[in-house]
Sequence to fold (312 residues):
Amino acid sequence: MYYEKTFLIISVLLGILFYPVDAQQRIVEGSNINISEVPWQVAIQTKGVFNGGGSILAPNLILTAAHVVEKYTAKEVKVGVGSSKYSNIGANWYSVSNIVYHPSLDIALLILSRPLSYSTNVKAIDILSANKASYYNVGNILRVTGWGITFLVIDDPFKEWKMSDDLKKVDLPIVSNSTIGAANSFVITYDGKHSPSKGDSGGALTIWDSSLQRHVVIGTVHGNPSTQRAYCAYVRSSSFLDFLLPYYPISITGGSDQVCSSSTFSVSYPNSTVTWSCTGPLRITSQSNTSCTVSSTGNGPAVLKATIKSGK
Fold:
């Protein structure tokens, strides 16, 4: 199954069911991590109050869990970036113009009102590579980060829960979904001691791909799928790539809006198949999955299109 969409590249004038993370979960003995190591990590506020995490997918696109924002309008949600300390986010809060919900999974996309400016501490993470089956092998060690609570006091009902001001990390192994009867749309982690905490919902579960030399987000923190607190479920990224694709921007480089002889255009869209076509006095002289070279065959308007197919 795949999603297919056709994009206008140039128009030229030629001749010129699980429960969300609750208070029973926590990061125990999680360690501090600098935002520069996980620059895709964002904090999410609802009505001015911290309510979870998320991941930068593109300058104007944030991935989070639906249950983090579902009770709020887009105007009531803000996204904070670029700081290891929550209290130091300061002016780096971005408004949200629209929220798009997956029809059946605990996934939401936040469309920002203005694009992020990338830096050492603010960068996107790869999600389009997440359909690689080996990422989900039992035993793989994955990383979760967030500002969720770091303690649990069961015998004190009056204890005030407090989030961590410092960004925390914990590394956890994948276990078989059959261990707790979880659906295939989830990734399950368990080590008997550690787990994401209340406030970590919506954050990324990531794996390091040494061949790509980058991190890939393969899950989004969802919640506790069992009565055993150390198990945690994450919505599996490969289960919603088709949903994501229409909102994911394409990076187009090179080329010109006026072609007198020839021009080359490149499209960056990982793990997808790109086919090229043109109309009008335009001829494709060479093409690949990432680029296309065209030449003029006369005068007048013409269109070059790239059709992208992505999926399993």
